[in-house]
Amino acid sequence: MFNTTAELEELLMQRSLSDTQLQAAASASADYRILPDATVIKIGGQSVIDRGRSAVYPLVDEIVAARKAHKLLIGTGAGTRARHLYSIAAGLNLPAGVLSQLGASVADQNAAMLGQLLAKHGISAVDGAGLSAVPLYLAEVNAVVFSGMPPYGLWMPPPANGVIPPYRTDAGCFLLAEQFGCQAMIYVKDENGLYTGNPKTTKHVSFIPKISVDEMKAKGLQDSILEFPVLDLLKTAKHIPQVQIINGLVPGNLTRALAGEHVGTIITAS
Known about the structure:
The chain has an eight-stranded mixed β-sheet with strand order 3-4-2-1-5-9-10-8, with helices on both faces. Strands 6-7 form a two-stranded antiparallel sheet. Helix 6 links the parallel strand 3 (125-126) and strand 4 (143-147). It has helices at residues 5-14, 20-26, 53-66, 80-91, 96-118, 134-141, 169-179, 213-218, 229-236, 253-258, and strands at residues 38-43, 71-76, 125-126, 143-147, 184-189, 194-195, 207-208, 210-212, 242-247, 265-268. By secondary structure, the protein is α/β, with parallel strands linked by helices.
């Protein structure tokens, strides 16, 4: 075990950055939690925003009320327009990195629209370098909107199969919550949570109120309400030990989840 900065620096000067002894020394110290009192909320693109006014307006009102007691980082999904772009780009044999850029453009649009709806309440949408101002927004108005797509672009890790980007807006929002050291990650979708199958395409499915990453993988729930690569991110996370999936179409669900209630499905790292 290496406990001093000098020992770690010596290893850094002498070893490869992938050396196991160096990695162990680097992980010996705890990460600094930048925004430990904040919660990241991911607003689904296809599940919420694409439904328009009937779904978005009540959620906007709930967010405005909730920010009086909670610090909120509000990420947006991409949704139906991104799927349409993916279908065209995949048909043109374009790679995952290009599809990632296209999906990001739609998530950006959704963040811009949500930001405009929240503007009169002082809640702004930020992107890129603007993320450095997030602490200021939280200190002033307790909320900020961002695009959920992680900025991999052409550097998107290739998927095992096909060309659909494996890390999309669910993953992007989780990564932000983890890197900022936030207290919770809540996914706002259009289902009550996780089921034993996709309730939109499969009959006779059962609701799952709580499940671990290993259990979810063992059940083979790839066609689930959450991007499957998020499970691997959750498994290795240091600050976010679980995520919560709620139905944002049910009034009050977000408020209850922010208050710590078990609403919907909770997926745990272990």
